Amino acid sequence: MGSGSLLWNLTKKYLTVGVIGLTITDRYASVLPVRGGSMSPTFNPRTDTVLGSLDDRVLIEKFCLAKYKFSHGDVVVFRSPSDHKEKLIKRIIGLPGDWIGTPQNDVVKIPEGHCWVEGDNLACSMDSRTFGPMFHTLSNNTLGRAGLQKPELDQP
């Protein structure tokens, strides 16, 4: 009887911690690995030939979306317009009303509720130059704002 009661108490504790953890990562913040080099040198500034690329991790702030006013230079995480299972991390370059020059030498005015995002490494970034202005108001598309980056483990 004692071991069954102990097992039940442990199960309740783990379930409670799990529910709280899921609530926090779903509504407030989560940690996301940054894959690829589109945001280099800000994220993933180097690759290691032995281990392959070493992915940086960033804290994604989600709670801020309800009242936060995005500004130029903010780094945001959103669902890819071409594959909604894929998450992209890019920097906001243009906001509603801004005029942005495109690689095709066109000039685009950013519509209300949208923004223009680009990776820091333009040579290997799929961004607004590919898919146009991104819907950025509170929606299922925008997942959060990139906050803290983990410090490099090998720096002195």
Automatic annotation (TrEMBL):
Positions of the Peptidase S26 domain: 9-107
Superkingdom to which the source organism belongs: Eukaryota
Compartmental location: Mitochondrion inner membrane
Catalytic residue list: S38, K90
Annotated membrane topology: Single-pass membrane protein
Any one GO cellular component localisation term in the record: mitochondrial inner membrane peptidase complex
Gene3D superfamilies linked: Umud Fragment, subunit A
Family matches, as Pfam families: Peptidase_S26
Keyword Protease recorded: yes
Species whose genome carries this gene: Dovyalis caffra
Keywords, sorted A to Z: Hydrolase, Membrane, Mitochondrion, Mitochondrion inner membrane, Protease, Transmembrane, Transmembrane helix
InterPro entries registered for this protein in UniProt: IMP2, LexA/Signal_pep-like_sf, Pept_S26A_signal_pept_1, Peptidase_S26
Chief localisation class: mitochondrion
Name assigned to this protein: Mitochondrial inner membrane protease subunit 2
GO-annotated biological processes: protein processing involved in protein targeting to mitochondrion; signal peptide processing
GO molecular function, one term: serine-type endopeptidase activity
Family membership: Belongs to the peptidase S26 family. IMP2 subfamily.
Keyword match Hydrolase: yes
